[in-house]
Design goal:
The protein is α/β, with parallel strands linked by helices. The chain has a domain of 243 residues: Type I PLP-dependent aspartate aminotransferase-like (Major domain) (Aspartate Aminotransferase, domain 2, 3-Layer(aba) Sandwich). It is built from 15 helices and twelve strands. A hairpin with a 7-residue loop joins β9 and β10. The radius of gyration is 25 Å and the shape is globular. The structure holds pyridoxal-5'-phosphate. The site of pyridoxal-5'-phosphate has 14 residues, from α6.
């Protein structure tokens, strides 16, 4: 009798496969241990891009050879968010523990859509912990998803079902003759508008409420908008407040918004993509007061939580609404009280996906190995670094701050003539230098250098490097621009 299938994809020489596997693991440990010696980011040359344009070959390749291509042509040319100098957008840094856990998850190859298995018990345990963190009731439900974009979409769909009853899933919005409207602030993430679009309600039905000087939603304006819409016969069904806006890190006034949502009987959702986990830091948690009153919270473990991509979460106060929105009967998904088909409801009853990877495992490992207190300290430390950066900016006459620093995001610019053009060039020069990598944003027409400090590896020396390089590039770019302008003038006079 054959012990292995002729067609198996498992190695026939396990000892040498094992050796190669250990080598690959060591290479990743080396990479993580020596991050600081590498540039944050470097662009691909045309030759390096060409590697990815080769046609598909029928010939198998050696694992070692494919891994060598990874080491030479992929690893050095990623975005760089593992690096301490990375400050662009809001990207988490990942951890070696998360990496190992993801390897275990891939080896187990669990499909966590349903059925009776320990990985689902683990997800349920995480849900219990998360309910505790946000003081949510026992009746709450939740689901791991790719990220907050998906979690925001799920929350819009659940709020829609809660507002219009389950039959809307069958009949469709067009046949209801009702016009739903939603509200968020002008500083909200684009995924809220996208959720309205994908849900078939339309992004025009999303009111972008004005913000105050601190980039927080103006609750007066929100109240007026809801009243005006009700008067016009529309149906307000969803308010999305933000904890940690993507531009500047502002926190909307949650308690006041929760009061209004309660009064007007509108679903309150909190987009806490990166900011919600501030609940882990005792010095920051009080600023999130009111979040415990939300009907749903969307957040990511892959940002401030440092879990490797991807790991987002949707938490819903009343689990019935989540089931009502997504559970569907199908014979091949029928449930039993015993055997593999036990354990209903399953995760696939709580969201649009059936097959799901075991992203909860790397989250569980991260929380267990580091402990929630340490993760809270890491989060708080990035805010302390942001305050340090703010002070350095205030002490540098050539620099100016462009927004309040509420959490870990600092928006500033180099003072000069033609600041939008020069600061855009400074951001590119910083990224191309490999020293630090901030990104840019536009605040009231002013282009800002935006440093989002998310990575647990970032230190004061990286902030100092950002300041020094910004000043140096600012001066070079400004001088070059002036010189070329005076050349142009001379040429046109000649
Ligand atoms: C990052 C972010 C999102 C999107 O989350 P993804 O995980 O990238 O899908 C949504 N809202 C806010 C405020 C964010 O910062």
């Amino acid at each position: 009798m054959l012990k292995t299938s002729e067609n198996t994809l498992d190695p026939d020489d396990w000892p040498s496969f094992r050796q190669q596997g250990h080598q690959m693991l060591d290479d990743m440990f080396d990479y993580l241990e020596q991050l600081r010696e590498q540039p944050v980011w470097q662009g691909l040359s045309p030759a390096q891009r060409e590697i990815f344009q080769q046609p598909l070959s029928n010939e198998p390749s050696d694992l070692a050879e494919v891994h060598e291509t990874f080491m030479k042509s992929i690893l050095p040319y990623a975005v760089g968010n593992t690096h301490p100098g990375f400050m662009g957008w809001v990207h988490g840094g990942g951890t070696p523990v998360g990496m190992l856990a993801d390897m275990l998850a891939a080896g187990l190859n669990a499909n966590v859509g349903g059925r009776d298995q320990a990985p689902i018990e683990l997800e349920k345990q995480l849900l219990q912990w998360i309910k505790g963190l946000f003081s949510f009731p026992e009746t709450a439900s939740g689901l791991f998803v790719t990220g907050t974009s998906m979690a925001n979409l799920i929350s819009v769909l659940i709020a829609r079902t809660a507002c219009l009853k389950k039959s809307i899933r069958k009949e469709g919005l067009v046949n209801s003759g009702l016009q739903l409207v939603a509200y968020t602030s002008a500083s909200a993430h684009i995924s809220i508008a996208q959720a309205m679009d994908i849900a078939g309600i339309g992004s025009d039905a999303l009111r972008m409420i004005a913000t105050n000087d601190n980039y927080q939603m103006d609750v007066e304006a929100l109240a007026l908008a809801i009243r005006a819409d009700k008067k016009a016969g529309l149906i307000p069904f969803f308010i999305a407040a933000t904890v940690g806006t993507v531009d500047v890190g502002a926190i909307d006034p949650l308690s006041a918004i929760a009061d209004l949502a309660q009064l007007e009987k509108v679903w309150l959702h909190v987009d806490g993509a990166y900011g919600a986990l501030a609940i882990l830091a005792p010095d920051l948690a009080p600023r999130l007061q009111g979040i415990e009153r939300a009907d749903s919270i969307a957040f990511d473990f892959h940002k401030w939580g440092q879990v490797p991509y991807d790991a987002g979460f949707i938490l819903v106060r009343n689990g019935e609404h989540q089931l009502d929105t997504f559970a569907t009967p199908a014979a091949y998904l029928s449930r039993a009280s015993k055997g593999l088909s036990a354990g209903s409801p399953w995760p696939c009853d709580l969201g649009p996906e059936l097959s799901r990877g075991f992203r909860a495992l790397k989250t569980w490992f991260t929380i267990k190995v580091y402990g929630p207190e340490k993760l809270g300290q890491v989060i708080f430390a990035t805010c302390v670094l942001a305050q340090y950066l703010k002070q350095r900016i205030e002490l540098s006459p050539q620099l100016e701050l462009l927004a309040p620093v509420e959490l870990n995001i600092v928006c500033f610019r180099y003072r000069c003539e033609n600041p939008n053009r020069i600061n855009a060039d400074i951001v590119i020069a910083l990224q191309e230098s490999g020293i630090v990598a901030p990104s840019s944003t536009t605040l009231q027409g002013q282009l800002a250098i935006r440093a989002a400090i998310v990575n647990h590896r970032t230190t004061i020396s990286d902030i100092d490097a950002l300041i020094a390089a910004t000043l140096a590039f600012g001066e070079i770019i400004e001088t070059t621009l002036k010189l070329s302008a005076s050349h142009l003038k001379r040429d046109s006079l000649a």
